[in-house]
Amino acid sequence: MKAKAKPVNAQPTLLVDSEVVRQIRQHARSSSKNEICGVLIGQDRDHRIEVAACIEGQNAEEGGAHVTFTQNTWEHIYAVKDQNYPQERIVGWYHSHPGFGVFLSDHDTFIHKNFFSSPGQVAWVFDPHSDEEGCFGWVDGRIERLTRIAVVDRRGGEPAEETGRPEPVTAAGGDSDAVVVRRKKQESSPPRIRRLDPQEGTTGNETTGNELSLERLVANVFLYLLALALGFALSWYFFPRVEVLPVMLDPRTGQLIDVRTGEVIADSRDAKGGSAERSAEQPHSNTADPNKPDPNKSGQPSPTNPSGKKGDDAKPN
Q: Check: CATH 3.40.140.10 for 13-152?
């Protein structure tokens, strides 16, 4: 009989170690706001993908809705792989979606197509807020969410025999319900970050809030005063200033009076007009009248008239 041919478009079977699942969850819960990433280490045999370990993507470019493998991230991944898993290969990658479900975004699809394009490589997604998780892989040349996933506990099959571990004991002098459990290795998930409701604030927080409000108020007042002083300085230097001077007028003539001396200030226009009038009235003020006796020449005979006669002879007949 001929063996049945495997369908080409059948989804691969994914076997994931339980320790790998625990490490992925712990890594994702360490950053509840930004995405984290890493790679999956294992083998790909006969349409069967086995994930045995994972390596955290250190120095990755992490954001609230994206994550990117940097050059430093790949250097760290290959250094750890060559040292701890030399016989294994990279069979996929994992990253977190903090608070927005399990799917592959356009950025995630770009990473998977360009860096994990082998048919035996998968993409594991975990939401640390809702604890939802899923895996995507290559099926007939396209990326689909896988349904055939199994979590394997490699410690399964251990006999339930005496292990030498102490039983829980009751605390001395305490209540019978108080039990002290001693463990060699305690595995606990990291604490989740929760926003504090303003109504849940304690007295200390209220005091701190009041102090911050007072400091903010003082800073605002100082800034306003500084801006006001700067505005006054700029207006003093850049805008024209008006100076008011006292003026006194003569009530009779309406002329200006000097405040310091009390004398009337002559108007320059009046002074020019008066001088012009005086010059017009006396055009020959500097020319001596020939008929007018000169006081400086007293005792001398009077000048002759135009006819050349002196004294009474100058009078007409």
A: yes
